[in-house]
Amino acid sequence: MLKFIHAADFHLDSAFAALPPEKAAERRREQRELPGRLAEAVRTWGAELVLLSGDLFDAKPYPETVEAVKAALAEMAVPVFLAPGNHDFYGPDSPYAGDWPENVHIFRTGRMESVPLPELGVTVHGAAFLGPTQEEGLLRGFTAAEDGMVHLGVLHGELGEASVYDPVSREDIAATLSLRDALRAISVDLIDHFIIAGSDYVSMAQSGFFSSAARQAFALRSPEDDLDPGFPAD
């Protein structure tokens, strides 16, 4: 059974412009603990793979923050895949342009790239934001090979076809639900999902919210979607 952790939107070194300078600096210091906590979660849960779907940094981070993230990802000692988002897009001055630990793969192009991990029976697909907006959906026209591998995608995006942040359509959602069902059928286990807001975060696994929160989220879909979430009863 494959175990992996997904996280995104840490927004490290956010300016916290609404706060007094001393308080903003304190919040940034608290934020810098998040990568270490993520590494601890990888060890605790025995995760074999980590997917990071963008906005780890907020605009231009401090060098010490970048080094702390590198150290935490190296400490995980498992494959880590990172897809830059609209706040930390890839470019010549991006923190992702330098050297990173050997276990970290950063998607650095604006088209879908595929990386097979035969030892895990998995192929990871992803792409990067190359600027603060991405008007064309990165998933558009993409299909995964039918090769017996488990196919996982890591992208930054936003729901809504009018979005300028890698728009994700209802068709994309339907395809994702089909993939989710396929992963369940072969016992692939998503063991945690971190939600980040400023310096605060919630571990869905530690909070026990996985099933109930997911059912609630899908209950908000419009009736015409006709997408059965398929979550088991408690």
Describe the structure.
This protein is an alpha/beta fold and 234 residues long. The two termini are 22 Å apart. It has helices at 21-31, 34-45, 63-76, 170-185, 204-207, 210-219; strands at residues 3-7, 49-52, 80-82, 104-106, 113-117, 122-126, 150-154, 158-159, 167-168, 189-197, 200-203. A hairpin with a 4-residue loop joins β5 (113-117) and β6. It is 29% helix and 20% strand. α2 (34-45) packs parallel to α3. Mean pLDDT is 76; it is low at 196-200 and 207-234. Strands 4-3-2-1-10-11 form a six-stranded mixed sheet. The protein has a three-stranded mixed sheet with strand order 5-6-7, with no helix packed on it. The protein has six helices and eleven strands.
Task: Provide the descriptors you would attach to this structure in a database record.
234 residues; alpha/beta; disordered C terminus; six-stranded mixed beta sheet; three-stranded mixed beta sheet; 6 helices; single chain
Main sheet specs? 6 strands, mixed
Low-confidence stretches: 196-200, 207-234
Describe the global form.
globular
Number of H/I helices: 6
Number of strands: 11
Instruction: Give the spatial strand order of the biggest sheet.
Output: 4-3-2-1-10-11
Q: What is the percent of helical residues?
A: 25-40%
* SSE order: EHHEHEEEEEEEHEEHH
Give the DSSP E fraction (strand runs of 2 or more residues).
15-25%
Estimated structural class: alpha/beta
- Average of per-residue pLDDT values: 76
End-to-end Cα distance? 22 Å
What's the Cα radius of gyration?
A: 18 Å
Oligomer: single chain
List the helices and strands and how they pair.
Blueprint: E1 3-7, H1 21-31, H2 34-45, E2 49-52, H3 63-76, E3 80-82, E4 104-106, E5 113-117, E6 122-126, E7 150-154, E8 158-159, E9 167-168, H4 170-185, E10 189-197, E11 200-203, H5 204-207, H6 210-219
Parallel strand pairs: 1-2, 1-10, 2-3, 3-4, 6-7, 8-9
Antiparallel strand pairs: 5-6, 10-11
